[in-house]
Amino acid sequence: MAETRTEALHRNAEGLDIQAPETILASLADAQVEAAKVVRAAIPSIAGAAEIIARSLNNGGKLAYAAAGSSGLMALADALELPGTFGIRRDRIAILIAGGDEAFRTLAGGPEDDTEEAAAAVANAGIGKGDCLIAISASGTTPYAVRAVQEARGRGAATIAIANNRDSLLLRQAETAILLETPPELIAGSTRMGAGTAQKIALNMLSTLTAVHLGHVHDGYMVNLMADNIKLRDRAARIVAAITGHDKDEAARLLETSGGGVKTAILLAAGAASADAAEKLLEGTGHKLRPALSAIEGSKGSKASVLIKTEPEKGQQGD
Question: Pick the catalytic residue: 14, 51, 81, 102?
Answer without folding.
Answer: 81
